């Protein structure tokens, strides 16, 4: 068995070919890329998510080996005998005579603790992943534990720091944010113009066989060919496709939803989050590509489109990472509203009479993907209004989406959609009635329930659940300047009217699995 001086670990979300590790070929260094039971099972994952990471890892290992590096790629079959990552590493240290172990800083608290606390018998060194724009050591300069930091302020600092869409010290276009222009809904004439989604045909039959052979529990639609990019080349192709076909109308329709198009699951969204979160692409690479596309064709791509996209990468993505690391591990157990109800069974099947949830969940099960408004204002809002245990909500979001890694999932779910952090991330809960869904989608037109009704037979559950939630948590929410005025509308109604609405909500909550 060949011996090596150094063993370097590459995790499934560390597939960055530009890392300084790879600048020199070192025959005395062995790179380890391993499929692990612990990573495939720490929550129940969508099968396409597991396949995407495992396929991308396999492709990255092959690319490294082709470029002259010493690489050990281990499948689930080959790691099944090891209890966890540390036990595998201890075995490899012994087998290959390793003198030193190095790893890139893990982006999940769970994994980082495991790596930092383990003893494998040789010196261990941690290095940076070299991916994020904001250095890890500077997070505490932008965020404070247990204190609210607003994204808009952070975003403007990042724009200035990295000179993105800036004209001196002022934003290009003399406006920081074009969000008000980016809330259009689809008219019938708009649906024909939605671009075809770019998808890939990556064979994953071997991975599916390994998952079944090793009794990995998963859910979602399994397909022999994976549509997601698994190489840097495929990721770049998807980036170019988005800049050409999606970006011209991305901002305009970034919040819109429809079920009247066969391209309803992709719309104008980039779907680059898996490529980014696995580090096949870098955030600056994506930002610069979008800005270049805008500058090259400002007549087709307005500043509102590119700013809305840049805000997601330069602003939101870096922002949630800061919220996560400054507040962990306490953040993962916050439950501001003390929500305890179990997640309804239809979140695993999509079988509900509510068209909005049927569409968002069904799409998620089919593609391991939903865009940010489907996640926040459909599935997220329902869980918030229904008082679902945020721990169960976290596990569902972390498992079902191909791009879900805890550093990005947890703040988005527990903070943004569930307000379980009490406002560390969002300035108000994203609670909404059926009116919002009706405004931003065509879901309500074909729904079993009537969006215009609060009570009675077939009344939209979102309507009564909204007021039930607002009344139940009035003491906590009425002091919030962004939503305190809403209670004036409630107080205008008679006591009898209020009682009927809250009773309707309680009936729905009592039969939540049958909605």
Overview of the structural elements:
By secondary structure, the protein is an alpha/beta fold. The chain has 22 helices and 11 strands. The strands form 4 sheets. A 5-stranded parallel sheet has the order 4-2-1-5-6.
Reconstruct the topology from this structure.
Elements: E1 6-9, E2 29-34, H1 37-41, E3 45-46, H2 47-66, E4 70-74, H3 76-79, H4 85-95, E5 100-104, H5 109-117, E6 124-127, H6 139-142, H7 151-162, E7 166-167, E8 170-171, H8 188-191, E9 202-203, H9 205-213, E10 218-219, E11 225-226, H10 232-250, H11 273-277, H12 283-296, H13 303-327, H14 355-367, H15 372-386, H16 390-400, H17 406-417, H18 434-440, H19 461-472, H20 474-477, H21 486-491, H22 495-510
Parallel strand pairs: 1-2, 1-5, 2-4, 3-10, 5-6
Antiparallel strand pairs: 7-8, 9-11
User: Which segments are poorly predicted (pLDDT under 50) over 5 or more consecutive residues?
Assistant: none
Largest sheet: 5 strands, parallel
Dominant shape: globular
Distance N terminus to C terminus?
Answer: 60 Å
Per DSSP, the total helix count is: 22
Concise account of the structure shown:
The protein is α/β, with parallel strands linked by helices and 515 residues long.
Key descriptive features of the protein:
single chain; 515 residues; 22 helices; 11 strands
């Amino acid at each position: 068995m060949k011996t090596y001086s150094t063993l370097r670990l590459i995790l499934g979300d560390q597939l960055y070919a530009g890392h300084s590790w790879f600048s020199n070929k070192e025959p005395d260094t062995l790179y380890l890329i391993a499929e692990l039971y612990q990573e495939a099972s720490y929550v129940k994952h969508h099968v396409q998510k597991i396949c995407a990471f495992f396929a991308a890892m396999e492709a990255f290992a092959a690319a490294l080996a082709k470029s002259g590096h010493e690489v050990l790629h281990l499948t689930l079959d080959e790691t099944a005998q090891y209890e966890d990552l540390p036990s595998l590493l201890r075995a490899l240290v012994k087998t290959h005579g390793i003198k030193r172990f190095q790893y890139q800083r893990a982006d999940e608290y769970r994994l980082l603790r495991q790596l930092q606390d383990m003893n494998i018998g040789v010196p261990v060194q941690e290095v940076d992943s070299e991916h994020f724009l904001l250095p890890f050591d500077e997070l505490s300069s932008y965020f404070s534990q247990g204190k609210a930091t607003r994204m808009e302020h952070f975003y403007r600092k990042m724009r200035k720091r990295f000179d993105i869409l800036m004209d001196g010290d002022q934003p290009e276009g003399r406006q920081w944010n074009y969000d008000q222009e980016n809330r259009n809904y689809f008219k019938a004439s708009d649906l024909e113009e939605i671009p075809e989604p770019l998808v890939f045909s990556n064979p994953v039959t071997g991975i599916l066989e390994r998952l079944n052979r090793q009794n990995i529990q998963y859910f979602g639609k399994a397909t022999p060919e994976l549509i997601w990019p698994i190489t840097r080349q495929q990721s770049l192709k998807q980036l170019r496709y988005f800049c050409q076909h999606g970006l011209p109308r991305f901002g305009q329709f970034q919040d819109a939803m429809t079920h009247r198009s066969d391209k309803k699951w992709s719309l104008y969204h980039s779907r680059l989050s898996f490529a980014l979160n696995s580090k096949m692409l870098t955030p600056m690479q994506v930002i610069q590509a979008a800005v270049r596309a805008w500058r090259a064709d400002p007549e087709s791509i307005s500043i509102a489109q590119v700013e809305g996209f840049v805000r997601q990468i330069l602003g939101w993505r870096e922002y949630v990472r800061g919220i996560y690391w400054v507040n962990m591990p306490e953040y993962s157990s916050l439950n501001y509203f003390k929500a305890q109800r179990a997640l309804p069974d239809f979140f695993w099947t999509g079988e509900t009479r509510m068209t909005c949830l049927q569409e968002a969940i069904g799409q998620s099960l089919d593609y391991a993907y939903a865009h940010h408004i489907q996640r926040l204002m459909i599935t997220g809002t329902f869980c918030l209004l229904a008082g679902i245990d945020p721990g169960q909500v976290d596990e569902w979001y972390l498992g079902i989406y191909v791009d879900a890694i805890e550093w990005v999932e947890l703040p988005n779910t527990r903070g943004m959609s569930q307000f379980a952090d009490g406002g560390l991330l969002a300035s108000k809960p994203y609670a909404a009635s059926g009116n919002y869904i009706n405004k931003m989608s065509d879901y309500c037109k074909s729904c079993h329930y009537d969006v215009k009704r609060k009570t009675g037979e077939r009344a939209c559950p979102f309507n009564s659940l909204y007021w039930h939630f607002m009344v139940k948590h009035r003491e906590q929410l009425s002091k919030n300047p962004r939503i305190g005025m809403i209670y004036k509308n409630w107080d205008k109604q008679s006591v009898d009217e209020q009682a009927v609405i809250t009773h309707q909500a309680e009936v729905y909550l009592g039969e939540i699995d049958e909605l």
